[in-house]
Design a protein that fits this description.
The chain has 620 residues and is of the alpha/beta class. The protein has 24 helices and 24 strands. Helix 5 runs parallel beside helix 7 and helix 8 packs parallel to helix 12. The protein is globular and about 90 Å long.
């Protein structure tokens, strides 16, 4: 480690680099930390790193594409300035000095580019296109991020940049076979990128494009100066272009492009993500896109069953031109199947305009305009919110699917950061219970005094830290509930416990012992994270639709209808929407006090066998 004034993190993503890894790690010794993310190498790479370089922070992650792998690694860096070199790249001593001098000078630039001299079979390539290459390898992670391209990922730089004087040495190709295999890997990723863009193949792709690539590198770029090596490289590059279209043709023949639409709240978006899982399991090579409202995208980020999240922005509703442009993009993608789980006119128009051969949605009086395959929702089953989604999946696959509650997928880094923050703010040895003190509006929120009674009861029953969950716009109502709580309860409440965004909130929620409160998005997110819940339903919400996972013993839900069935009779709870504020006061704590006490006792027992946060962080 060096004595840099400005700390630098050296980062690398690797796979089967046993022939390079020692030299790379020695070359990066100028950095203040080294982070390596390995794609489960099958050679000695992991053993070499862990046994010979114990100071290196070593992680393993399944490789999906270069952009996501690099961004994942970026998030692991401790310092803002990073040096993100490949394992087959070497910085000269003069280059190292230049890098450290520039970084330590507090430059206005946020990224530094380097020139690369390519080596093939141990010899540098002369006057070749490869040596015109420039790449950003040193940058501030707070100002830069990799694009979502699957191959030849591009670094998005928010600020100024410059090219450094000294070039690096790039030992990219050991021999002809190694070069060929690497290019074929790029061919597959490029084919996947083309597939996602809806590109189809023709004769031009298999003839003119490969031939021109050979001609470009061998003749126009003077590759012939490098003799036999130049000819081999040009021929492999031409073959690389040919194979990308071979792979693309196979994908277009064997794989489906499927769009799932769910434009609503977080609970609905989570529920419909189960459709994506069923489809991906049925058609593993298919591309599954998920169209959701922009504010809900964090709950489905990193979902392994979703290839691409398509945010539906507010401007599409505000501008007909923007909406039409969005529709053209959907149609251009060339979906084979569209499943509309939202079932409104807006999503129906998107489905109809997609041009998909198969268009699936719920059966309503107007649906013949939009769909050619419809599903009649069975409203008699328990957990109908998920059951109806599985009906849609079955309409697409022709196969019945086991109902599974959807999951939220946090990265190890997100969990580690949340655990560290919780350990800093709370007592390591006490359970942490999040209280969903308010619903999305008044008709989904238990009256303030009754919620305060519940919180006070919790505080008197269990020795725990209580976190209030509410929207920023609800702070005054949350304060009202806080002030109505007993003094003992207020002493256990962390009222001002803020996080920046929804992913940060999910990280904190994942570390809680339980979530108790009004039914809504937070309850659904807790269930998707495996956090026990005690749910209080609004009088007008149908408990039967959303009351999932109660059979596990980890989740309890209460509803006014459980105690006063005569109020509802044969009517559906939705018919009581206008009477919600009138009915809510009947839902008193004494009705479900025993159930809540039993739930809290269960949480206490779980907490007794759970490690404190500061120790749990290491095992995440």
């Amino acid at each position: 480690m060096s004595g840099n004034q400005t700390k630098i993190s050296a980062l690398a993503i690797v796979f089967n680099e046993e022939h390079n890894i020692r030299e790379y790690l020695q070359n990066m010794s100028f950095a203040d930390e080294i982070v390596v993310v390995d794609s489960f190498s099958t050679d000695m790479t992991p053993a070499i790193i862990q046994e010979e370089f114990p100071h290196v922070r070593f992680y393993q992650r399944v490789f999906d594409d270069f952009s996501s792998q690099r961004n994942y690694t970026l998030d692991l860096a401790t310092h803002d300035w990073v040096a993100f070199f490949d394992a087959d790249e070497r910085i000269t001593p003069k280059g190292i000095k230049e890098i450290t001098d520039v970084v330590n000078s507090n430059p206005e630039e946020v990224a530094l580019w380097v020139k690369r001299i390519f080596y093939y079979q141990g010899k540098p390539l002369v006057n070749n296109n490869f040596n015109e290459d420039r790449t950003a390898r040193i940058f501030r992670k707070s100002r830069c991020r990799y694009s979502d391209k699957l191959v030849h990922e591009k670094l998005t730089i928010n600020g100024k940049s410059r090219v450094l004087k000294y070039a690096i040495e790039h030992y990219s190709f050991i021999n002809k076979e190694d070069f060929l295999q690497k290019r074929l890997q790029y061919s597959k990723l490029k084919a996947k990128e083309f597939y996602n863009e809806g590109i189809t193949t023709n004769v031009f792709h298999f003839t003119v494009r490969p031939a021109f690539r050979f001609f470009k590198y061998y003749v126009l770029k003077f590759g012939f100066i490098n003799g036999r090596q130049g000819f081999e490289i040009a021929r492999i590059l031409g073959y690389h272009v040919y194979m990308r279209y071979v792979y693309l043709r196979e994908m277009n023949r064997n794989c489906r492009k499927i769009l799932v639409i769910q434009q609503k709240m977080i609970g609905d978006v989570l529920a419909s993500s189960s459709i994506c899982k069923m489809l991906k399991e049925e058609y593993p090579c298919s591309r599954i896109d998920y169209l959701v409202n922009t504010f809900t995208t964090p709950v489905v980020e990193n979902n392994p069953y979703i290839n691409r999240i398509i945010p539906f922005e507010d401007r599409y509703r505000e501008s007909k031109r923007a909406f039409f442009s969005f529709l053209k993009g959907i149609r251009k993608t060339g979906y084979d199947v569209v499943i509309d789980a939202y079932g409104k006119w807006e999503s129906g128009i998107i489905t109809s305009f997609s041009g998909a051969k198969t268009k699936i949605g719920y059966k309503k009086w107007y649906t013949s305009f939009f769909y050619n395959k419809t599903v009649e929702p069975d409203k008699t089953v328990s957990g109908s919110a998920l059951y109806h989604r599985m009906q849609l999946a079955e309409a697409a696959t022709g196969t019945k699917h086991v109902i599974e509650y959807p999951k939220i997928y946090l990265t190890e880094q997100e969990q580690a950061v949340a655990a560290a923050y919780m350990a800093e703010k709370t007592d390591d040895y006490k359970p942490v219970i999040m209280i969903s003190v308010l619903g999305s509006d008044d008709i989904k929120s238990l009256p303030a005094q009754e919620m305060a009674n519940i919180i006070s009861f919790i505080a008197a029953t269990i020795d725990a830290t209580l976190l209030f969950n509410y929207l920023p716009s609800q702070v005054e109502k949350a304060k009202e509930i806080y002030n109505l709580c007993t003094k003992q309860a207020r002493e256990k409440i962390l009222f001002d416990f803020y996080v920046k965004g929804l992913r940060d909130f999910l990280g904190i929620l994942s570390q809680c012992s339980a979530l108790i409160g009004n039914e809504g998005g937070a309850i659904n997110m807790a269930k998707a994270l495996g956090v026990p819940t005690f749910t209080i339903f609004s009088p007008w919400i149908n408990k039967n639709s959303w009351n999932m996972l109660t059979q596990t013993g980890e989740h309890i839900a209460v509803h006014l209808q459980d105690y006063y069935p005569e109020i509802y009779g044969a009517k559906h709870p939705k018919e009581f929407k206008e009477k919600s504020l009138e009915l809510y006061p009947k839902l008193k704590l004494n009705l479900f006090e025993d159930d809540l006490k039993s739930f809290l006792n269960h949480i206490t027992k779980q907490a007794e066998g759970r490690a404190p946060l500061q120790f749990r962080r290491e095992s995440i």
